[in-house]
Amino acid sequence: MEQALWDLTGKAAGLPVYKLLGGPLRDRIRVYGGAGGYTPEEAAKSAVACVQKGYTALKTGVYFQRPARIIESPAFVEQVVNIFTAMSEAVGKEINIAIDFHGAISPQTAALLIKALEPYQPMFVEEPVQCQNVDVLADLARKTHIPIAAGERIFTKWGFRELLEKRAVSILQPDLSHAGGIFECRLIAGMAESYYAGIAPHCPLGPIALASCLQLDASIPNFLAQEQGSLGVGYLKNPFVVEKGYIELPKDPGLGIELDEEALADKITADDWINPQAYDPEDGSVTDW
Prior knowledge:
Largest sheet: 10 strands, mixed
Strand content: 5-15%
Low-confidence stretches: none
Shape: globular
Number of domains: 1
CATH class: Alpha Beta
Radius of gyration: 19 Å
CATH architecture: Alpha-Beta Barrel
Number of helices: 10
Distance between the termini: 29 Å
């Protein structure tokens, strides 16, 4: 709702939302793609394909044949490092690669993985442990020079205040669709700026959510990179295009997008989607992905 109101206001005023927020600080928005695989070969191939699509920054995950245990084996740590190394070697040192633990790794194993990954300089380590575990996040952050990121499951400026005050992260990842909208996230970005922290908004959602993020990204000085799950092909009349790692700043009023009603017609149906249910194959316990 909040994003829709910004869109309406911008269209009424004939201005992009970023101009209503004070004006753009950049002409292009850096975005990153997703890559990975369960073997070094799969991961390397995926990373190269992502770069060929125009990305200069990627994000991968912790890949293994089973979920991580509380205390992991040397083989687990070695495979994660080997996969990350294969991706880095395949695309070269000019490409940034972040790694997302998705809050599914224990503090004990997270510490091992971060230490092992340090020589390969990840862009950032995302949610090395559950983001509500702020004191442990802070402990991990103080033990490494790799930037720690979190925030997709934190809501409103009050939730982010503790992360900043305890120096638990140096990259905040608010999701505009979950953390109060464009203006609330503008306030969060201002808080982060006073702590010299960067902003990399979370957005695995659709192109409307991405369009909202781009408006915020344009108007804050501490923007790092933008996650995206859909550039709008089959949804927008003019989908976003990634060139040399960036999306050109939309110039049209409001959120700068127009829905393609004809393309959307076959997508507006009863939603029978079911969230994947993940279980540990060894003992049947519920796991995060």
